[in-house]
Amino acid sequence: MKFYSTNKKSEPVSFEKAVMAGLADDGGLFMPQSIPELDKNFIDQLEKLTFQEIAFLIAQKFIEDEISISDLEKIIYAAINFPAPLIPLDDKISVLELFHGPTLAFKDFGARFMAKAMGHFISKQYRELNILVATSGDTGSAVANGFYDTPGINVFILYPKGKVSHIQEMQLTTLDKNVTALEIDGTFDDCQRLVKSSFVDTELNKVLTLSSANSINFARLLPQMFYYFEAYKQIENRFGEIFFCVPSGNLGNLTAGLIAKKMGLPVTKFIAATNANTGFAEYIRTGSFIPRNSILTFSNAMDVGNPSNLERIRELYFNNISDIQKNIYSDSADDIETLKTIKSVYDKHGYILDPHGAVGYFVLNNYLQNHGSNNRSAVLLETAHPAKFLDVIEKEVKLNIEIPERLMNCLSKEKKSVPLSANYSQFKDYLLSIKK
Ligand SMILES: *Cc1c(COP(=O)(O)O)cnc(C)c1O
Question: Per the confidence metrics, is the pTM higher than 0.85?
Answer without folding.
Answer: yes
